[in-house]
Amino acid sequence: VVIRAHGVPPAVRAEIEQRGLECIDATCSLVLRAQRFTKQLADEGYRVVILGTPDHPEVVGLKGYAGDDFVIVETKEEWERLSRMKKAGVVSQSTQPPWAFTALVAHVATIAQEMKVFNTVCPVTVKRQHAASELAEQVDTILVVGGKNSANTRELVNLARMQGRHAYHIESADEVLPEWIAGQDTVGLIGGCSTPMETLLQVKARAEALATAEGREARAAAPA
């Protein structure tokens, strides 16, 4: 049995052990950290507020450590509906936008008598979002490669569009359309946190081939 990077609930780990199965634990160290903090909050009697996508595997895992008193929120509308709390503990899915975590914490501070916060947003996610913003300043169009359900990939798309750029969210090279490349001087390329380099290279090759077919010199830009 291989536990993927997103981790699993403690009940799943227990079942693996009970069955005596060989286990390869590939859980990301940052996810393990978030799981420990979530359990700590639950053990200390805090209502655990988790910022994340409810059905995301990482969040499903965190729920297993949150005890019986927890709530999952993903949008401003959801956290603004939270009732007042005596003790609130806040954690996040590692790939949620940093600004969303900051905004959630600020709101919970107004409705909780006591609050404890563990910032479990992945530093790589933060760096990638900064890179996307910088890249958007250098190009005409951005191809953002990653799963359609990936929170961090969707945020990269949003950041590019906020700067007035055409941004296209794709999962593979065959989704790149000729009209996205036509007439563009420079096309940017960036991937979500879990996007394989092989997929990025395939998208790059596809974009360059379309530019060449149009009789233009291929010019690709990517974050450092």
Keywords:
224 residues, alpha/beta, Cobalt-precorrin-4 Transmethylase, domain 1, 2 domains, 4-stranded parallel β-sheet, 9 helices, 10 strands, 20% strand
- CATH architecture heading of the largest domain: 3-Layer(aba) Sandwich
At the fourth level of CATH, the homologous superfamily of the largest domain is: 4-hydroxy-3-methylbut-2-enyl diphosphate reductase, catalytic domain
Mean pLDDT: 92
Describe the main β-sheet briefly: 4 strands, parallel
Strand content: 15-25%
What is the count of distinct domains?
2
CATH topology of the largest domain: Cobalt-precorrin-4 Transmethylase, domain 1
Our measurement of the CA-to-CA distance between the termini, rounded to an integer number of angstroms, reads 36 Å
Q: Tally of extended strands? A: 10
Strand order of the largest sheet: 4-3-5-6
Low-confidence stretches: none
Roughly how many Å is the radius of gyration? 20 Å
Element string (H = helix, E = strand): EHEHEHEHEHEHEHEHEHE
State the secondary-structure class. alpha/beta
> Quick one: CATH class of the largest domain?
Alpha Beta
What is the overall number of helices?
Answer: 9
How helical, in percent, are the residues? 40-55%
The general outline is flat
Task: Describe this protein's structure.
α2 (29-43) runs parallel beside α3 (57-63) and α6 runs parallel beside α7 (151-162). The chain contains nine helices and ten strands. β3, α3 (57-63) and β4 form a beta-alpha-beta unit. It folds into two domains: 29-117, Cobalt-precorrin-4 Transmethylase, domain 1; 123-218, 4-hydroxy-3-methylbut-2-enyl diphosphate reductase, catalytic domain (Cobalt-precorrin-4 Transmethylase, domain 1, 3-Layer(aba) Sandwich). The radius of gyration is 20 Å and the shape is flat. The mean pLDDT is 92. The strands form three sheets. The chain has a four-stranded parallel sheet, with helices on both faces. Strands 8-7-9-10 form a four-stranded parallel sheet, sandwiched between helices. The chain has a two-stranded parallel ribbon with strand order 1-2. It is of the alpha/beta class.
